[in-house]
Specification:
492 residues; alpha+beta; Alpha-Beta Plaits; 2 domains; two-stranded antiparallel ribbon; 46% helix
């Protein structure tokens, strides 16, 4: 029964979190957005003390159920392990713990966090790793399916579905997501929870906490005959059937061993004193390690707190080219580029949720896979606050529409040599007409000749950097006006 309950809850969380990354309408975030915010690392970065305390208490009481129920990357590994089990049963075996590897990976992760976040942080963060897999590999398939339904519905006279564009936002991120999926699939197929118990920093921290869990699988030495059936079905490789011992730092409380034992020799219960005595005496340094790593991680978290393709069917239109900005653009609510870099783990939930295709993963090495803004496919509409609503780490803090309309993330810059009124001698004014804050005015290019072609003049203090001018400028491939980012956002 416990195993069935665990599987049911895991399915709910896995499907719900996956749906968050697939949903392009924004309808599901109001109902399921909390699932992203109860992930341990995002909650730490966002200083969501209530969630962190709740997850720690959950682990102290029930063991590492977080890894087998709440974490989507853990549940995905269970799926691959289950498929591997179909081909060969009783295929696992006990393997000694590799504490040095776990400590090394955790140390690298903590150092990366202390340095303000890096590729190491993004690659090792389990929730973010799954987010990239769902957003880059599953989302295109989901959108293609939606477009197929929209095609059929349109011919039946129904508009229940609408077509959306499917495109790869970043080749680098796509390759990383594909490689991550392949590595995890192989590891899970062959060895179950190898990644969770050797590499994952969240698994390491929770593992040390789970060692002192109140409820855990306990081997009844009076009933156990050392048949090894539980050991061969333990995907965490943490059961030593010969010594009748369980390594609770690696046990993910999946309950598979309880259902497998034919002698009912394993029970999920409070560990009694006599069962502790059955274990061989050993020097226990886990408490010291746990306290040290927990303190470092907590301190680190506290520091971090501080288109159209043709013109009327007559002429081909070139795709826009994203300009080289001296300072990259980060969304309103990020407050500054530095704050964004420190808190962002590149889960890319904001990229999946952006309805205007403005956000995409960066290809710059220093901020690889972290979202940045580009206006070649759309612009950041002042009324949209979707990214601030879905961000679970505090990299983009919640803001209102009013706040967004008064937040200056950058300013427009005019490029004279690309402006159509000067190059082609025609009237334009597209940038001024579509500026939502009225920061652009058209004035005669020749002050003495009022009939001369009009060019834009930008009120930098009024501009909020939304990118409407850059996106809607008809000049191609380079816009005659583009947005330069600000390191620190200004409030007008």
């Amino acid at each position: 029964m416990l195993r069935k309950i665990r599987i049911a809850l895991a399915a709910v969380f896995f499907v719900g979190i996956t749906a968050l990354f697939l949903d392009f309408t924004g309808a599901l975030h109001a109902w399921l957005g909390w699932m992203a915010k109860v992930q341990l690392l995002p909650a730490l970065l966002a200083l969501n003390v209530g969630v962190v305390v709740a997850l720690v208490l959950l682990t102290i009481i029930l063991g590492r159920v977080y890894c087998s129920v709440i974490c989507p990357l853990g549940v995905m590994q269970d799926l691959f392990a289950w498929m591997g089990k179909k081909s060969k049963r009783n295929r696992y075996a006990y393997s000694p713990e590799r504490p040095w590897l776990r400590v090394v990976m955790l140390t690298l992760f903590v150092i990366s966090l202390c340095l303000g976040g890096s590729v190491i942080t993004q690659l090792l963060a389990p929730y973010s790793a799954y987010g990239r897999i769902a957003g880059n590999l599953l989302a295109p398939l989901y959108r293609w399916g939606n477009n197929g339904l929209a095609y059929v519905a349109e011919r039946m006279g129904s508009y229940a579905f609408y077509e959306v564009e499917v495109w790869v936002r970043s080749g680098v991120t796509f390759a990383v997501a594909l490689a991550t999926l392949a590595i995890l699939a192989v590891l899970a197929w062959r060895g179950g929870r190898t990644y969770c118990n050797t590499i994952c920093p969240v698994g390491t921290v929770l593992g040390y906490i789970a060692r002192y869990a109140w409820l855990k699988p306990v081997i009844d030495t009076t009933k156990c005959n050392s048949c090894g059936l539980c050991e061969r079905n333990c995907k965490a490789a943490c059961i030593n059937s010969k010594e009748k011992r369980i390594d609770y730092t690696r046990c993910v409380a999946c309950m598979d061993c309880i259902g497998t034992c034919k002698k009912q020799g394993i029970k999920y219960m409070h560990r009694k004193a006599e069962s502790k005595a059955a274990e061989p005496a050993a020097v226990d340094t886990s408490r010291r390690t746990f306290l040290t790593t927990t303190a470092v991680v907590a301190a680190t978290a506290a520091v971090k707190a501080q288109e159209m393709k043709v013109d009327g069917g007559l002429a081909a239109i070139q795709d826009k080219v994203v300009p080289e900005r001296q300072t990259h653009l980060v969304p309103p609510g990020a407050m500054s580029a530095r704050n964004f870099a420190k808190h962002c783990t590149a889960c890319q939930l904001c990229v999946s949720a952006c309805p205007n295709d403005v956000l995409r993963p960066s290809t710059t090495l220093t901020r690889l896979m972290q979202p940045e803004m580009a206006y070649d496919r759309g612009y950041c509409r002042p009324e949209c606050t979707r990214c601030s609503e879905v961000c679970p780490t505090g990299a983009i803090r919640p803001i209102t529409r009013e706040d967004k309309s008064s937040t200056q993330i950058g300013h427009a810059v005019w490029v004279k040599k690309n402006c159509i009124p000067l190059t082609d001698g025609v009237h334009c004014g597209n940038c001024a007409r579509h500026c939502p804050v009225g920061a652009i005015q058209m004035v005669p290019s020749d002050a003495e000749n009022k009939r001369s072609p009009k060019i834009p003049v930008i009120n930098v203090e009024r501009c909020i950097g939304c990118g409407a001018c850059e996106n809607l400028c008809p000049a191609r491939p380079f816009s005659a006006i583009y947005v330069e980012g600000h390191e620190r956002h200004k409030i007008n």
